[in-house]
Design a protein that fits this description.
Radius of gyration: 22 Å
Mean pLDDT: 92
Low-confidence stretches: none
Number of strands: 19
Strand content: 15-25%
Distance between the termini: 25 Å
Number of domains: 1
Structural class: alpha/beta
CATH superfamily: tm_1862 like domain
Largest sheet: 9 strands, mixed
Helix content: 25-40%
CATH class: Alpha Beta
Number of helices: 15
Shape: globular
Length: 453
């Protein structure tokens, strides 16, 4: 590989790099992945394996301009009803192929907004999963909640189905910022929804924030952080806004001239992190914070913290079975993604097959680099002695990369450690850039991603 830029360059934070919720990352999945391959993988899944489930609900009552997720607006409920029939059919088919008897560690409903579902359909979908994967009864059950959707009968439905964790997007409470991103959601509404979730027995509440939004300033994000601290979630994630209008067409409604630059983004991220730590939250990886004693904090300390498509997690499942349009899952053999277009996904399921469209068969080199990148992102370190003990001499290319980084790093940025290195606290904003040096796909065929900060 030819390396003309360093993660330690002055302008490095203005570059785009992956967030590494998988490796290889989704842009490098193959587009001709055969459903028959996925069927074979499902049939080979160990009946005693620990598995997590992800259900993608791609509908929203309103489309927020900042969002880059695979979603669609719907003013009528019929498309949701039809979609539910197909996701249930997919669940049935996958359960037939796997046997359905696996231990389920976690179930996550994402989107879109799963809270667009009618109360009866919330119960129906949860019941259908239970019938086909009985192990889900004792699993953590997390749902992405849009406070604007929540009604008394939806709270009652989620109480009935045993919701244990809610993830709520806030972005920023500043009204000017909210107008610029097409999402009006007040502090009082969010506070009251969290209180009601606690009241129905939800033991874990996550709040997601963004920095780098249009018109956002250190003052506005500081006020939002103060209000979020008052709400008192168990976990807080602070992501950098990814302005990717070539992928998310709705982002063309956001004027790029009013977006903060890299230095402003860095200042906003640093301020938010400092305020949360001062308020007693523990920093987890590059963008999460948790109360001391939270399972995320404990996993960070004992080295079991993981990273997957939902971000940082304590879930150590060997596979994630993903259902719905665009949903990405993984099995021991590799990754698989369903057709991203809702209409095409539904047609393929209606025709009695699976909807897998893209995927990646993991090579030995992929596995080694995946483990290395996950350790960098979760622990700010790379233990190459450990990797060599597992994979032998196949780790030699990673040692060469680590040696090059150590030689290029400014004094105090990296500390040599167990054949690899540790990243010093003042340089952790460059963690994704450092991880990208170990990404064989990105180094040879860079894809378009969000800014490094």
């Amino acid at each position: 590989m030819t390396h003309t830029a360093s993660p330690f360059d002055a302008d490095a934070l203005s570059r785009s790099v992956p967030r590494y919720t998988s490796y290889p990352t989704a842009p490098h999945f193959s587009g001709d992945f055969a459903p028959e391959t996925y069927e074979r993988w499902l049939g080979e899944l160990d009946r005693d394996a620990a598995v997590s489930l992800y259900l993608h609900i791609p509908f929203c009552d309103e489309l927020c301009w900042f969002c880059a997720c695979r979603t669609q607006g719907s003013k009528m409920y019929y498309p949701v009803t039809r979609y539910l029939a197909q996701i249930e059919a997919e669940i049935t088919r996958v359960a037939e192929l796997t046997g359905g008897g696996q231990t389920i560690s976690q179930m996550h409903w994402g989107g879109g907004s799963p809270t667009v579902l009618a109360p009866g359909d919330i119960r129906r979908l949860r019941r259908h999963v239970q019938e086909h994967f009985p192990g889900v009864e004792s699993a953590e059950f997390a749902v992405e909640i849009d406070p604007r959707d929540m009604t008394p009968d939806r709270f009652e439905a989620f109480a009935d189905v045993g919701l244990t964790r809610a993830s709520i997007g806030v972005q920023d409470f500043d009204e000017t910022v909210q107008v610029a991103i097409g999402r009006k959601q007040g502090y009082e509404m969010t506070r009251d929804v969290v209180a009601q979730l606690r009241g129905i027995g939800v033991s874990g509440v996550n709040i997601d924030l963004l920095y780098g939004l249009p018109h956002q300033t250190e003052d506005s994000i500081g006020r939002t952080i103060e209000q979020v601290i008052e709400i008192g979630p168990d976990r807080i994630a602070i992501f950098g806004y990814a302005h990717v209008p070539w992928m998310a067409k709705r982002q063309k409604l956001i004027d790029p001239a009013v977006l903060p630059g890299p230095e402003q983004r860095q200042a906003q991220a640093s301020l938010a992190a400092a305020m949360l730590v001062q308020a007693g939250y523990t920093a987890i990886g590059i963008d999460h914070f948790a109360r001391p004693g939270d399972p995320l904090a404990l996993a960070r300390d004992d080295g079991t913290l993981r990273r997957n498509f939902q971000g940082y997690t304590v879930d150590t499942a060997q596979a994630m079975l993903a259902f719905g349009a665009s949903a990405i899952g993984f099995l021991p053999q590799g990754y698989v993604q369903n057709d991203p277009a809702t209409a095409t996904y539904q047609l393929r399921i209606e025709n009695g097959g699976l909807a897998s469209r893209r995927g990646c068969v993991l090579s030995l080199d992929d596995r080694i680099r995946r483990d290395a990148i996950e350790e960098i992102l979760t622990q700010f370190r790379l233990d190459l002695d450990r990797l060599t003990a597992s994979y032998g001499d196949f780790t030699e290319p990673l040692r060469e990369t680590a040696a090059r980084l150590l030689a290029a790093a400014p004094k105090g940025a990296l500390e040599p450690w167990r054949g690899g290195f540790r990243i010093a606290g003042g340089w952790r904003s460059r963690t994704r850039l450092i991880a990208a040096e170990f990404d064989a796909y990105f180094q040879t065929r860079p894809a378009r991603h969000s800014l490094a900060v």
